[in-house]
Amino acid sequence: MQFGKYDFKCTFRKDAILPEYKGSTFRGGFGVALKKVSCTVRHGECDKCLLAQRCLYARTFEISAGQQITGRMVQPPRPYIIQPPPEDKRHYAAGDCFDFNLILFGETNEYLPYFIYAFEEMGKVGLGKKIAGRRATYTLDAVKYQQETIYQSREKLLTADQRGIDLQLESPGTQATAGKLELMLNTPLRLKQDNHLQAQLPFDVLVRAMLRRISSLFEAYGDGEPQLDYRGLVAKAKKIEVCRDALHWFDWQRYSNRQEAKMLMGGMTGSIVYRGNFAEYLPLLKLSQQLHIGKQTAFGLGQIDYRWISA
Question: Which residues contact residue 11 at a Cβ distance below 8 angstroms, ignoring those fewer than 6 apart?
Answer without folding.
Answer: 95, 96, 97, 98, 138, 139, 141
